[in-house]
Amino acid sequence: MLSEKQATPNLNSLRGFEVIDYIKYLLEEACPLTVSCSDILALAARDSVFLRGGPWWEVLLGRRDSLKASFAGANQFIPAPNSSLDSLIINFKQQGLNIQDLIALSGAHTIGKARCVSFKQRIVQPNMEQTFYVDEFRRHSTFRRVLGSQCKDSSRDNELSPLDIKTPAYFDNHYFINLLEGRGLLISDNVLVSEDHEGEIFQKVWEYAVNQDLFFIDFVESMLKMGNINVLTGIEGEIRENCRFVNI
User: Signal peptide: which range, if any (predicted)?
Assistant: First the structure.
């Protein structure tokens, strides 16, 4: 089986699988073949957000694990870090998610890190970010110079930089404040304001930047929607004994 971990968006990018392995080991010791890896991931995502200062929500349980992997699907449906706004909207729509879901879920980039190879284009692109204040201190060019010093050449492609430079260890609304200041790390972050010609998305970004509670409410709603995409239940799929393999 060709693993989704080998797909281009995931290769040398996703980390932390050993944490899921350990959780699964403890659960199998206590309650064999009872809790799926899919449910573990959904719960771990919620707990990670909450432990970093974000909202809490009830996770719907009862998912079952797939009997196969989708290498092609991972390559096709995971948004690239240099995606345009139009391609992001289309990508989310294919999964039953709307523009508000796109904006709210993008706010997850308030925690986590990205490799230099994922934002190299951000460093060299023309200084055309759309921002909404007078940049008298040249924060855009200064921010890009900082990134450039970290990612000088291809030997540093796997160097990591926080997605939220202000509060990288906390789940808050600073991601949206960064966007308004032209300091989103990925091109696919910045297009939420730089390519929003109608102003609808910018308005929501602004609302989240000034009202963290509103962001948290909408983020939870969108996470619940995303957690119900293509779910296997009942007798579909299986409960994996080891999250890295289908059962024998």
Answer: none
